[in-house]
Design a protein that fits this description.
alpha/beta; Rossmann fold; 2 domains; 3-stranded parallel β-sheet; 10 helices; binds NADPH dihydro-nicotinamide-adenine-dinucleotide phosphate
């Protein structure tokens, strides 16, 4: 029997969502309106449509306004950018999220660049990225923000911890490394060209895996007592004899339980934190745009 604590992201996210919902009435009292999140979906990708629907539902459940914009797959770049500009100018919109990936003919970076940094609840614009690197107030990508919340809730002070982030994407790996650095961790960023990954992981008190490769990080890679945040979401292929297309992380969960002191499960770990942090970012953006202090405890 392992003694690893299972970090319950689902429960933590439910608590965060409840605190967000509790903070909305005070905002409405001060401003005479509710915070609003606009989500833009281009095309008919089934997975993206599911994400957009669940974001809309969670937004409304928190007492905020949800504006969904569904555009056809053949939408032109100028049309999409015109919509983003219209949302930038719309006073009832505090957060803008363009669901990625976009159809191939569209220039994702140009579309993201058009989002006002003050409404950039995904934290992906160059200004948001720069603010994070500079340590200035800004909006931080939801998945790494949620991962950091789980770590701080479990460990407390992260100062001086050795952390490894496996993956260097703009969405997860890089902002995660910046957040850990800001918490005074000593941070290693690993990627596909990293040599002897196992030896590096073995040095780390905190392991964040954001790779997209099913069960790549094995239990015997871990330093005894490591805290593991598994960001990966991989669906095993039933056609290859894998169990019913079940979801697994980037960490081999069963073997990791042997040495880790705590680990996030997949599903039910980091995943639920992402939408909760999107709501959090929308509420924070709304406060800043209205000239109010950030809501406390979020
Ligand atoms: P990307 O594909 O953008 O990035 C993957 C990263 O992993 C890259 O930096 C890549 O390195 C690195 N990598 C690939 N192979 C290896 C390897 N063998 N050893 C070490 N590093 C490697 O993915 P994302 O960052 O967008 O997502 C990562 C995972 O997190 C995915 O499973 C995704 O589904 C999941 N995810 C989960 C979310 C949630 O809400 N829980 C939200 C977002 C993502 P290089 O840069 O050299 O190519």
């Amino acid at each position: 029997m392992s003694g690893a604590t299972i970090i319950d992201g689902k429960a933590f996210a439910a608590g965060l969502r409840a605190r967000i919902a509790e903070a909305v009435p005070a905002f409405s009292k001060a401003t005479g309106r509710v915070p609003g999140l606009a989500v833009v979906l281009v095309g008919d990708d089934a997975a993206s449509a599911v994400y957009v629907a669940s974001k809309g539902k969670a937004t409304v459940a928190a007492g905020m306004a949800s504006f969904e914009h569904r555009l056809p797959a053949d939408t032109k770049q100028e049309e999409l950018i015109a919509l983003v500009r219209q949302l930038n100018a719309d006073e009832s919109v505090d957060g803008i999220l363009v669901q990625l990936p976009l159809p191939k003919h569209l220039d994702e970076q140009a579309v993201v660049d058009a989002i006002s940094p003050d409404k950039d609840v995904d934290g992906l614009t160059p200004i948001s990225t720069g603010r994070l690197a500079l340590g200035l107030p800004g909006l931080v990508p939801c998945t790494p923000l949620g991962s950091l919340m789980l770590l701080k809730d479990h460990i407390g002070d992260l100062s001086g911890k050795d952390a490894i982030v496996i993956g260097r994407s703009i969405l997860v790996g890089k902002p995660m490394a910046q957040l850990l650095l800001a918490e005074n961790c000593t941070v290693t960023i690993a990627h596909s060209r990293t040599r002897d990954l196992k030896a590096r992981v073995q040095q780390a008190d905190i392991v964040v895996a954001a790779v997209g490769r099913a069960e790549m990080v094995k239990g015997d890679w871990l330093k005894p007592g490591a805290v593991v945040i598994d960001v990966g979401i991989n669906r095993l292929d039933p056609a290859k004899g894998e169990t019913k297309g079940r979801l697994v992380g980037d960490v081999d969960y069963a073997s990791a339980l042997e040495l880790a002191s705590a680990i996030t499960p997949v599903p039910g770990g980091v995943g639920p934190m992402t939408i909760a942090c999107l709501l959090r970012n929308t509420l924070v953006a709304a406060h800043r745009r209205a000239g109010l202090a950030d809501p406390e405890g979020l």
